[in-house]
Amino acid sequence: MKTLQLTHPDSIWTWNNSSKKKFSLWLPYLLSINPIPRKKHQFRFEYNGGEVEVDLKNVDFILIYGGKTNCTFPLEFLDLLNDLGIPLAIHRRNQPRPYFFSPSNGSDNVDILSKQIEFRTNERKRCFIAKTLIRARLEKMESLIAISGTTQEQLSAAISIAVVRNIEATATRRYWNAYYDALNIDVSRREAHIVNSALDACSTFMAGILLRWILFHKLAPTHGYLHQPTNYISLVYDLIEPFRYIFEQAVFASYQRLSENNTDENELIAESIKELKVLLNEEVWVPTMQITARRKNLMHGVVLALRSYLAGETKRFAIPAEGIRKGGRPIKAAFRIPGAK
């Protein structure tokens, strides 16, 4: 299948952010990767269900998922991913964390990496960023649970990451109980279940989008603020917090539609990804900036917001989150959300 006709069900997404359309590939149960003779940058991917020919110059992210296979990765392929700046994510079934191969970063005149680490070692600034992220997360939890004024006050008063994480963990336990109760299933978030598999897959999908923008804007994906370890992409999981509700809604709606038909894991994952694409492409109102933008561009926006704050270009870290249309002045931001109206 040629990528010129790529509306492929196993492709993550296609969107146009520049004059040249690029897409992200979602490849299930990959079997082989082979260069196409006499065609520079072009490879043939064989997977469980078919094959696709791809010009890597048109790709911005690749995700491989599913069970174990005997696929090998040619060094020529990996070298080209690095040269073209294409991140590669691999997410196996029942794997606690996906793993990522990130292209090497180029130069950055602002030296944003030093600023990122400086803010990370300053407990007050680090705590402010973490509280901002969790405040946005708690706000979206209110679709299922009530967040008390006392909880909000405790979060505002928190002066350590440990306290912030404890507040988030307490609310999250209540949230997941309500989420599974609403779906009428008796399971916890860490147990094996097709809903959890779909949540993991959609989380990896969105993590890949954030990783793309984090790398593009020269931030270090392993240096987060809320998530402390540096042995995984902690900044990605920091910045996904305000947007988790999107893939949670996608899985929720998909499971409700399919549950009467004894759906299997792969079907639910495919349907959830399809629903997630729809949600991410919807336009929403962003009160802090008084603009309309697609949800997918808010994920780029949160990276821009953090970078602008770290660089001292914007006075405070304000997340471009969706909300109800109301009056007020937009924040003074030194960046613009791509595609905003």
TrEMBL record:
Record has Nucleus as a keyword: no
Subunit annotation: Homodimer, forms a heterotetramer with a Cas2 homodimer.
Residue stretches in coiled coil: none
Keywords: Antiviral defense, DNA-binding, Endonuclease, Hydrolase, Magnesium, Manganese, Metal-binding, Nuclease
Native organism: Undibacterium oligocarboniphilum
GO function terms (MF aspect): DNA binding; endonuclease activity; hydrolase activity; metal ion binding
GO biological process terms on file: defense response to virus; maintenance of CRISPR repeat elements
Name of the protein in its database record: CRISPR-associated endonuclease Cas1
NCBIfam families per record: cas1
Sequence intervals crossing the membrane: none
The keyword Glycoprotein belongs to this UniProt entry's keyword annotation: no
